[in-house]
Amino acid sequence: MILYPSVDKLLEHVNSRYSLVMLAAKRAHELDMQKDPMLTEYTSVKNVGRALEEVEAGKLKIQED
Q1: Is residue 65 part of a domain?
Q2: H, E, C per residue of the chain
Q3: Number of folded domains in the chain?
Q4: pLDDT band at residue 63, thresholds of 50, 70 and 90?
Q5: Domain span holding position 37
Q6: Would 2 be classed as within a structural domain?
Q7: Is residue 63 included in any domain, yes or no?
Q8: pLDDT 10s digits, 3-36
Q9: Which residue among 18, 28, 33, 63 has the highest number of C-beta atoms inside a 10 angstrom radius?
Q10: Which among 7, 52, 8 is positioned nearest to 31, based on CA atoms?
């Protein structure tokens, strides 16, 4: 269960829960591979939480084709 950031706030940036999960999973994998962080400070310890924090901050978005 996600406590922070809240799912309601995350869905303001992404239009569906499925898209949110896919976006966070891909970004978490990038962070696992030592990709540069988008934020200077994170609350979450785990990379999935960090990816969700990037979504909430508006730094991580789904790229429209």
Answers
A1: no
A2: CCCCCCHHHHCCCCCCHHHHHHHHHHHHHHHHCCCCCCCCCCCCCCHHHHHHHHHHCCCCCCCCC
A3: 1
A4: confident
A5: 7-56
A6: no
A7: no
A8: 678 888 999 999 999 999 999 999 999 999 999 9
A9: 28
A10: 52
**Cβ–Cβ contacts within 10 Å for residue 50, how many?**
20
Q: How far is CA 50 from CA 30, 47, 53, 63, 64, in A?
A: 11, 5, 5, 19, 22
Distance CA 32, CA 29 (A): 5
Neighbours of 39 (CB within 10 A): 13
pTM, 2 dp: 0.88
Cα separation, 30 vs 33, whole angstroms? 5
Examine residue 61 and state whether it is found in any structural domain, yes or no: no
The pair of structure tokens assigned to 25 is 């999973």
